[in-house]
Specification:
Elements lengths: L9 E3 L17 E3 L2 H23 L18 H7 L7 H11 L6 H8 L13 H9 L10 H13 L3 H9 L3 H11 L2 H4 L10 H14 L4 H7 L4 H7 L1
Antiparallel strand pairs: 1-2
Helix pairs in contact: 1-2, 3-4, 5-6, 5-8, 7-10, 8-10
């Protein structure tokens, strides 16, 4: 007997609340890959279809436009399950899983973002190398309801830090941290800085370029253009 192929993730569309309220860190589209959560969504879809069919039998017509994501025939069950602001919903579960996996020193900050705070107070005394490792742990999959937070949370902590401090952190981190550091230095948060604030000492610059060359080649051209050498480095190499 052949094993069943893995079930494809459900691609979920945006969720519009009647009152217009939104979670500030919820993506417009995300995926549900957990089999138990997929079963829950399919169950509320069945409820919606059954209620729509019962209403149609009585001559009431429901609009069925939109994505097949459980909201074509909304029900109280689908609203609780899919609403990004529902504490019992699937998006809240995704965000909580992400927050629970954060480094201990960053967990309270992560949970504040997951709970809907737009600008929570940054934690004090956390080495930036730890933040790089946190960002480096982000994977392309799954693209769940916490995927915006996974990039946004660490990058917000790094955005206001001086390039000199970040360069010191690059020297003191390992492979996972270099993964996060390359992501940050290739991101808009860094590349839009004034050229004077993009001068990176050679040791840190070489570490970033070497890691990008081996593990993130798509980021290499951006780093080569945007990581400027310090004046001392340029004199020494002339």
């Amino acid at each position: 007997m052949q094993p069943k192929p893995p079930r494809k993730p459900l691609v979920m569309g945006d969720f519009s609340r009647p009152d217009g309220a939104r979670h500030p860190h919820h993506p417009a589209r995300y995926e549900i890959a957990d089999p138990a959560e997929i079963r829950e969504v399919r169950a509320v879809r069945r409820i919606g279809r059954q209620r729509a069919a019962a209403a149609a039998a009585k001559g009431v017509v429901f609009c069925s436009c939109g994505d097949d994501d459980g909201t074509a025939h909304p029900t109280p069950e689908s609203n609780r399950l899919l609403d990004p602001l529902s504490p019992d919903g699937i998006p809240a579960r995704h965000r909580e899983r992400w927050a629970a996996a954060a480094p201990e020193a960053l967990r309270a900050y992560a949970r504040a973002l997951a709970g809907g705070e737009e600008e929570p107070a940054p934690p004090r005394g956390v080495p930036y190398a730890v933040v790089f490792r946190w960002l480096g742990a982000v994977r392309a999959e799954p693209r769940d309801a916490a995927r915006l937070l996974a990039e946004r949370g660490p990058c917000r902590l790094l955005a206001g830090v001086s390039t000199e401090e970040l360069a010191w952190a690059v020297r003191g981190t390992g492979r996972a941290g270099l993964e996060g550091a390359v992501r940050f230095f290739a991101s808009e948060e860094f590349t839009t800085r004034h050229p004077k604030r993009r001068r990176v000492p050679d040791t840190a610059r070489d570490l970033l370029l070497r890691h990008a060359r081996s593990h993130r080649p798509a980021d290499l051209p951006v780093l080569e253009r945007r990581l400027l050498r310090t004046p001392d480095d340029r004199v020494r190499r002339s």
